[in-house]
Amino acid sequence: MKLTEALVVESIEANLRARTKEELFREMVGLLKKNPALAGTDESTILKSLNEREKQATTGVGKEVGIPHGKIMGLSTIVGAIGVAKRGIEYGSVDGLPVRFVVAMIAPPEASQDYLRILAKVARLLSDPSFTETLITATTGRAILDRIAEMEAAAAPVTTTEERVLLLFELTDPDYFDALVEYFTEVGGTNATVMDAQNVQGFITKVPLFADFSRVFTERQESGHIFFIVLDKGAVDRFIEGIEEIIGDLEEEGRGVAITMNIDYVRGKTSRIEF
Predict the structure, then answer these.
(1) What are the pLDDT digits (tens) for 197-220?
(2) Does the active-site annotation cover 69?
């Protein structure tokens, strides 16, 4: 599901009036209600859903971004709203920064997989400086919606080959782990396997013979994560492009390593990657 499918232009506000978190939630509920899919749902029900989720943990995910969200029985589709608070609003975010960019989402409970994926899409979109620049400079909801549509249409097409491969990706910089998990979720790779990994340099000083070389290997963290996922061979290039959009060119030392292996036998369902 694309983010544009969850939005109507009336639910996008380029200049929010709210000054507190409570006011912000109420204003976002008002924007959500402008979507016909919520015509039969009371504002109090929507607000309760957002507040109940907020009690579990803050949806202020950092970098001036807030993604309040919740679930409501009886909805036919996922519904979103976008707002920009030019002055920033104290939100209790994970990094302590005020929130300026807000995307609110409401979904039916049975749409959990699509809901999870679209939340990941929203998080990645808001981590793109070119998009947040659009939010800062835009004066109308139409300008924001058009930019989202443009970015969603920019992904390179994927050719389905029905030939599946096993992709192994080693992430050497743990700072990118959360962003990569969001990316895997966004494209439908939630059944990927992730293993903590440590290369030989991480163990070498534990070998008595090499104990006096401890200083050689203390400057770098010699551990990371390895992702395993099965996907169509025709999706590999686009999948790697998405990884490189997050961590940079894999040809640069220390970014990570991607390897694919042909699969001779598969029984059971594997991930379906969608861009």
Answers:
(1) 777 766 766 776 666 666 655 555
(2) yes
